[in-house]
Design brief:
The chain is of the alpha/beta class. Helix content is 31%, strand content 18%. Helix 2 runs parallel beside helix 3. The longest helix is centred in the C-terminal third of the chain and has 11 residues.
Length: 174
């Protein structure tokens, strides 16, 4: 996983959700992924930041014929080097709302195989979700790893990319 935020890096390392936590501010991500994979590159990578530089890095680190999944919502059009996709025959996919994945994820939590509690760094009352939730999402991304709003069985958790070969969340000035 790649991450700039100290809070997110700490959560990923402490919880064990990532085998390796890389900081693009101090490491050459492509070189490090190639080192970790014996020069092969990642089988799959998930782009979760909505930042062109991160997408470019993800395209660099995935192996030929690898899969890149974009799960971010982009605030502006992406700049994509199509030659990287074509020459490496990369399978680039987009997804929204993790369609079809919720059942399996919920079962993992219910069976105790995944503990979400360490990732919840804040709670917001449901009636304050719009005002405080968006403020947290926009202005406190460095410290808010997950934010939960609960009333009865309702749980809303944001930024749920974890335990992936290469995961980037938050803006990265690569």
């Amino acid at each position: 996983m790649t991450e700039l935020s100290a809070a997110r890096k700490e959560k990923a390392a402490a919880s064990g959700v990532a085998d390796h936590v890389l900081d693009p501010g101090v490491e050459d991500i492509k070189a490090r992924v190639l080192e970790l994979t014996g020069g092969a590159g990642a089988d799959a990578a998930f782009e979760c930041a909505g930042v062109s530089a991160v997408l470019d890095t993800v395209l660099d680190v995935v192996k030929p014929a690898g899969v890149v999944v974009n799960v971010s919502i982009w605030g502006r059009p992406a700049a994509v080097d199509m030659q990287k996709i074509v020459l490496k025959e990369i399978d680039l996919r987009g997804t929204i709302a993790y369609r079809g994945d919720h059942g399996a994820a919920i079962r993992l939590v219910q069976e105790g195989k995944v503990d979400l509690k360490p990732f919840i760094t804040g709670r917001i009352a449901l009636e304050d979700l719009v005002d405080k939730g968006f403020d947290t999402l926009i202005n406190h991304n460095e410290t808010a790893v997950k934010t939960s709003s609960a009333r009865r069985d309702l749980h809303l958790i944001r930024n749920s990319c974890t335990r992936l070969p290469v995961v980037s969340s938050g803006p990265h000035p690569l």
